[in-house]
Amino acid sequence: MAYTYVWEYLVAPDKVGLFQRGYGPSGEWAELFRRAPGYLRTELHRDLSNPLRFLTVDYWQSRGDWEAFRARFSSEFEELDARGEKLTTRETEIGRFELAE
Amino acid sequence: MAYTYVWEYLVAPDKVGLFQRGYGPSGEWAELFRRAPGYLRTELHRDLSNPLRFLTVDYWQSRGDWEAFRARFSSEFEELDARGEKLTTRETEIGRFELAE
């Protein structure tokens, strides 16, 4: 059963392009994730009623894969995260999940 | 660009099994959706920190496909929806989205 987590972002109006490039399925986050075993994919959903609101869904084979990634790429993670925070006005974790088959 | 919508459910403790069968990728909802053109897939995510909390994500080729489905299968939709409400204690729309490629 895959491990997933979902985040909601409100993006600064002048940063939407940058955000979409960085957080989409071929963005910098996905690029970093792909260096780790067990990463499956990233989805970026843009709210149709609020063009500044996005959801990301990341898919990993297991929670253990995610934790191993987080430990191993800690500094790369923090760096991307700090850069990402400059693009957004709010970041909210919707949750961590297991995906039904 | 695919059309998606995300719902959050809190499920009654004695209804979790029924809910998972009905709302998963091969549940009654997905079965109904599959009768309509443009339906892609359904995902069911179960919260790892709250076993009564779920997200569903439905994927359609376009918003138009969803609207055509909704109009054509209105009575089937309402019936399933009414049955579903008996399984849950809260249903919240997280949003309607377009999915980045």
Structure description:
Two copies of one chain form a homodimer. With 101 residues, chain A is of the alpha+beta class. Chain A has one domain (3-98): Alpha-Beta Plaits. Helix content of chain A is 36%, strand content 38%. Chain A has a four-stranded antiparallel β-sheet with strand order 2-3-1-4. Chain A binds chain B through residues 3-4, 6, 8, 20, 24-25, 43-49, 53, 55, 57, 63, 94-101, and chain B through 3-4, 6, 8, 20, 24-25, 43-49, 53, 55, 57, 63, 94-101.
Gist of the model:
Two copies of one chain form a homodimer. By secondary structure, chain A is of the alpha+beta class. Chain A has helices at 16-23, 28-33, 63-72, 74-85; strands at residues 3-11, 39-47, 53-60, 88-99.
Order of helices and strands of chain A: EHHEEHHE
Most extensive interface, chain pair and sizes: A-B, 26 and 26 residues
**How many strands of chain A?**
4
Distance between the termini of chain A: 7 Å
Helix content of chain A: 25-40%
CATH architecture assignment of chain A: 2-Layer Sandwich
Name the features:
homodimer; 101 residues; alpha+beta; Alpha-Beta Plaits; four-stranded antiparallel sheet; 4 helices
